[in-house]
Structure to design on (218 residues):
C-alpha cells in the first residue's frame, strides 16, 4: 500500500526526474520553479546542456519526505527558458516505504549503467521498490550514485533509473574476483511498478509450485 500525500512538491524543492523515453530513458536533477498543482515548471539544478524530451514523455518525479520518498507520475514537455521542462501530474503522489514491499530472491542478469560506463551484474533479490545485485569489486560505486538498471523479467524488460543506497564489501576486501552487494532504490513510474509487482507475484507462484512438487492446490 502507498501513503498519499500533497499532490505536488512545494516551490524550490529539489527533485529527481526519471524519464521513460527511447533509447532507454535518463534521469536528472531539477528544482520546482512554479507549484501550480496542474503543471509544474522544472528548472535544471546545473548548467549542463539542455536535455531532449519527446512531447508527452512519461516520467516520474522523486523527492524526499519525512516518511520516505515521494513519487509523482507525470508527463513532460520542453518549456521556456531553455533547459526547463513542464511536468503535468497524471496520477496521485505516493510515499514509498520500502519495508512494506514483498521482496523475492531473483538470480538474473542485470546491466547497471554507471556515470563512467556499464557493468554486468547478478541480481540477488527484487521488489517494486528496490533491487540488490552483485557487482565486481573494482566497480566504482558508492551510496548516492545515480544509475540505470535493465533486466529481463517475466513478460517485459525493466529499464529504470535508480540510486545506490548501500555497498556491502566482503570481509576479504576488494580483492580480485571478489564481488560486492549493491542495494539500489528503483525510481519507477506507476506502469513500471505494476509490471514489477506482477513479476514478483509470478516468482512467488513459481516458488510455491516448486515446493509442492509442481502441483497447485488452490
Amino acid at each position: 500500500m502507498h501513503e498519499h500525500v500533497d499532490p505536488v512538491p512545494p516551490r524550490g524543492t529539489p527533485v529527481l526526474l526519471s524519464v521513460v523515453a527511447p533509447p532507454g530513458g535518463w534521469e536528472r536533477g531539477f528544482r520546482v520553479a512554479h507549484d501550480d498543482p496542474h503543471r509544474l515548471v522544472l528548472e535544471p539544478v546545473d548548467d549542463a546542456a539542455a536535455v531532449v524530451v519527446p512531447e508527452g514523455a512519461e516520467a516520474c518525479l522523486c523527492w524526499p519526505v519525512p516518511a520516505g520518498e515521494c513519487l509523482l507520475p507525470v508527463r513532460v514537455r520542453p518549456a521556456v527558458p531553455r533547459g526547463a521542462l513542464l511536468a503535468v501530474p497524471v496520477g496521485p503522489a505516493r510515499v514509498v516505504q520500502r519495508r512494506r514491499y514483498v521482496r523475492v530472491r531473483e538470480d538474473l542478469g542485470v546491466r547497471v549503467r554507471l556515470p563512467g560506463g556499464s557493468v554486468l551484474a547478478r541480481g540477488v533479490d527484487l521488489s517494486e521498490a528496490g533491487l540488490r545485485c552483485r557487482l565486481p569489486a573494482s566497480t566504482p560505486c558508492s551510496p548516492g550514485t545515480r544509475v540505470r538498471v535493465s533486466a529481463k523479467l517475466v513478460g517485459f524488460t525493466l529499464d529504470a533509473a535508480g540510486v545506490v543506497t548501500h555497498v556491502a564489501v566482503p570481509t576479504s576486501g576488494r580483492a580480485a574476483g571478489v564481488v560486492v552487494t549493491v542495494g539500489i532504490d528503483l525510481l519507477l513510474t506507476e506502469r513500471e511498478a505494476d509490471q514489477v509487482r506482477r513479476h514478483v507475484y509470478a516468482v512467488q507462484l513459481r516458488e510455491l509450485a516448486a515446493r509442492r512438487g509442481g502441483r497447485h492446490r488452490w
Q: What stands out?
A: Helices lie at 190-211. The first strand starts at residue 3 and ends at 4. The CA atoms of residues 80 and 86 lie 9 Å apart. The radius of gyration is 19 Å.
